[in-house]
Design goal:
Low-confidence stretches: 62-76, 339-346
Strand order of the largest sheet: 2-1-15-4-5-13-9-8-7-11
Distance between the termini: 51 Å
Shape: globular
Structural class: alpha+beta
Number of helices: 11
Strand content: 15-25%
Length: about 350
């Protein structure tokens, strides 16, 4: 096995898997000498224009089509076509493969208990805390929370001080719709401008707080409203990466029907589609208020499991192994609130 291998744990089987990292050598070269010796070139290569061009070359260019089939073959990226809404013959371009819809209501079952918090994506997850006293302390490893949420949004990042965090890394082969992790009312949604850094584990380790440097959409959900999940305020941050051209807000109450923009005041239901990445690798971050959630034990145990060769462990000098899980699967449970609700004025 290569010393640069990156491994994760498959939740369904507990097996240790080695990830196939797309364009790994090229990406890690880019974040090596070019970043240090040609900063101007590096900035251009991680700009929105370069990201859109790379996405076009990989997902839209006609030369990528092979005899009417996707240039990113379904079998090569291990897609289960039986899950898809469209038949296999309709997935005839790389973009259609990437932006595929799945029958999530049938193939991604969700815990019925209203206290369950669910994964927003098919992804590889790490769970942590912003409290220095916590064994799960992740502060400033992947992001600076004030910078991530937006320093102009003082109220929000103060509300999430010392909170709990889950980081979901979507690889290019994954289903790229994001789903709502809790039921509640949208209080705020806004974009924060930034770069288009790769979400490959190597660059994530090399770039200081990379997730708070990338372009992102921040959604604040109040789950303590009637009919909500009773998990307090939840920040859902959708973060672009290299070859991501856009984040399309397209919430649907039923399957993918009648998609609508996500705006303040909208009631959203746990497990429903919220947005779509177009296309490439990407990351979701969930931030919960202090003391409002308990993450699932298996996710915490997997993070420190011995014998897993993770680039995050090597880069940050502590065990950090990801767990591969499915959208709408349970990631934790709500705790009851013991304080009165706060004023949500912005």
């Amino acid at each position: 096995m290569s010393p640069l291998a990156h491994q994760y744990i498959e939740r369904e089987t507990s097996a240790v898997r080695t990830e196939r990292l797309y364009a790994d050598r090229l990406v890690n070269f880019l974040y090596g000498p070019p970043r240090e010796q040609a900063a101007w070139l590096f900035r251009q290569l991680t700009s929105s224009r370069a990201s859109e061009m790379l996405a076009y070359l990989n997902y839209d260019l006609a030369l990528n089509r092979r005899s009417g089939r996707s240039g990113l073959p379904v079998k090569a990226i291990d897609i289960d076509v039986a899950e898809c809404v469209l038949p296999p013959e309709a997935l005839n371009t790389p973009r259609k493969v990437f932006e595929r819809q799945i029958r999530y209501w049938a193939v991604r079952p969700m815990e019925e208990d209203p206290r369950a918090l669910v994964s927003p994506a098919d992804a590889r997850v790490l769970c942590g805390s912003l409290r220095e006293s916590s064994q799960l302390f992740l502060k400033n490893k992947f992001f600076d929370v004030a910078e991530l949420i937006g320093r102009h949004k003082t109220l929000w990042y103060q509300r999430f001080a010392e909170g709990d965090v889950a980081i979901f890394r979507l690889t290019p082969d994954k289903y790229h719709y994001n789903h709502v992790p809790v039921s509640g009312q949208v209080l705020d949604i806004y974009e924060v401008d930034g770069a288009y850094h790769s979400c490959n584990p190597g660059p994530v380790v090399q770039v200081v707080t990379p997730y708070s440097k990338n372009h992102r959409v921040v959604t604040i959900i109040d789950s303590d409203v009637p009919g909500g999940s009773q998990a307090g305020l939840v920040a859902m941050i959708e973060i672009v990466a290299l070859m991501i051209g856009d984040i399309v807000q397209c919430y649907s109450d039923r399957r993918y029907e009648e998609p609508r923009d996500v705006r303040p005041g909208l009631m959203v239901r746990k497990g429903q589609p919220k947005s779509l990445y177009r296309p490439g690798g990407s990351t979701d971050v969930l931030i919960f208020q202090k003391g409002r959630v308990d993450f699932c034990e298996d996710l915490l145990v997997n993070m420190v499991r011995p014998g897993v060769r993770s680039r995050f462990s090597q880069g940050f000098g502590r065990p950090l192994a990801e767990t591969d899980l499915k959208v709408r699967s349970t990631i934790g449970w709500t705790r009851p609130a013991f304080t009165t609700r706060v004023d949500h004025g912005k």
